[in-house]
Amino acid sequence: MRLAINIDHIATLRNARGGREPEPVGAARMCEEAGAHGIVCHLREDRRHIRDEDVRALRRSVTTRLDLEMAAVDEIIRVALDVVPDLVTLVPERRRELTTEDGLDVKANKRTLQDAIKAFHEKKIAVSLFINPVREQIEAAREIGTDVIEIHTGEYADAADLQLQTGLLAEIRTAAALAKSLGLGVNAGHGLNYTNVLPVAAIADIDEVSIGYAVIVRAISVGLDRAVKEMLSLVQQT
Ligand code: PXP
After folding, report:
1. DSSP strands (E only) in 32-98
2. 154 lines ligand 1 (CB under 6 A)
3. Looking at 9, 42, 49, 152, which residue is catalytic?
4. Distance (Å, rounded) from C-alpha 19 to C-alpha 16?
């Protein structure tokens, strides 16, 4: 099982003060040094966290694999074709959402997605489609030539009780098996954290999990003790 880390919220924090820190490139390097198999960033149309120059800087510095999440819209496609990430993950995007809320409706957007996939393949960029664990969507994704699907685990992660969660996990497992049998690569992500990741990581047909928020939140909490102690020793030096 590979682990890809989404570093969008490093940029969220940087943008909160309008300065340069924390740097997405530095954070990506730390993730890679810690053993992450890839770095993910989402260039949103509103540029609320990651910016064009971040994607270009990450392309120069990432030594594992760079996965660029994006909507299939012309302006962002142009950036992606210029930057040439290792993988593009196409997601639906709504301006007012706090994070990606739903999987793509591949069936309803076949033409747009197919054109985008073709353009990426001409540049030798692999493509992943972020979809719900639904048979028709997986089959449609295969039909239009994607290389990988990313199964949306958000509903599983947010399930209100164990019974519901177990049912949703079974849907993810079935979806992963179907996608694998169709020759697709299988990623999974959204809402995965330190308490719900194990059953997903145990699904043999899933190649990679993509995790952002939980890891950045954890980094803040496990790092806080040391950060306070270091500052305390500075302010009490004299
Ligand atoms: N995969 C996709 C397609 C996403 O849009 C996101 C959120 O940016 C993630 C994975 C990571 O989700 P989270 O931040 O909840 O771990």
Report:
1. 38-42, 66-70, 87-90
2. no
3. 42
4. 8
Which structural domain, as residue segments, surrounds residue 35?
2-235
First to last CA, the chain: 50
Q: Half-sphere exposure of 6 toward its Cβ, with a 13 Å CA cutoff?
A: 28
Domain with residue 38: its CATH number is 3.20.20.70
Whether pTM > 0.85 for this model: the answer is: yes
Residue 150 beta carbon below 6 angstroms from any ligand 1 atom: yes
3-state secondary structure 169-194: HHHHHHHHHHHHHCCCEEEEECCCCC
Residue type, 68: L
Tell how many helices (H) and how many strands (E) occur in the chain: 10, 8
The answer to whether 123 touches 162, Cβ cutoff 8 Å, is no
Give tens-digit pLDDT for 115-161: 999 999 999 999 999 999 999 999 999 999 999 999 999 999 999 99
Which protein residue's CA is at the shortest distance from atom 3 of ligand 1? 130
Domain count, the chain: 1
